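User: Here's a structure from my thesis project, written as structure tokens. My advisor, Dr. K., wants to see whether a designed sequence matches the one we expressed. Can you design one independently, without my sequence as a hint?
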């Protein structure tokens, strides 16, 4: 089964606010880092050589490069205007950064199953805190940006 990059890689963030905001976005690239364990020096005067133990692992962080679609206006644009999904994500991050994140790579065939990148046991989402974000637009008007999430363990 083949998997496609570009708009086939999707993220879904659900804020942990009292009234949760769900935002779906296309992921154009991402990095996942963390887990580095610094050395703790336990060498004593009686040690024949330097002795170290591994320290606690650093937190995992994911930085996603994302693009947002514009949801079409309803039948009455004055009441239900077109909305840029990035605005929903911004509101979710400002109100309550804690939430869940799902990253999936959709299969290229209609009958294929999506491959889930994050897997937190039986739940397919990860509990995350949003730690930074930025948004910009280009000449074509597509809203894009980067969002960094810290994974909770």
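Assistant: Designed independently from the structure alone:
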């Amino acid at each position: 089964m083949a998997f496609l990059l570009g708009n086939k890689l999707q993220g879904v963030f659900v804020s942990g606010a009292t009234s949760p905001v769900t935002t779906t976005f296309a992921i154009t690239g991402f990095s996942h880092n963390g887990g580095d364990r610094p050395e703790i020096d336990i060498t004593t005067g009686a040690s024949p050589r330097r002795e170290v133990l591994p320290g606690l692992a650093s937190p995992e962080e994911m930085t996603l490069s994302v693009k947002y679609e514009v949801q079409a206006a309803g039948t009455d644009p004055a009441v239900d205007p077109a909305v840029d999904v990035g605005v929903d994500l911004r509101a979710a991050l400002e109100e309550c950064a804690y939430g869940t994140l799902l990253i999936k790579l959709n299969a290229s065939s209609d009958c294929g199953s999506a491959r889930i990148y994050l897997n937190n046991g039986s739940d397919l989402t990860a509990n995350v805190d949003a730690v930074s974000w930025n948004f910009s637009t280009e000449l074509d008007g597509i809203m894009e940006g980067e969002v960094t999430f810290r994974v909770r363990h």
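When you compare it with your expressed construct, this may help: Residues 1-5 have pLDDT under 50 and may be disordered.
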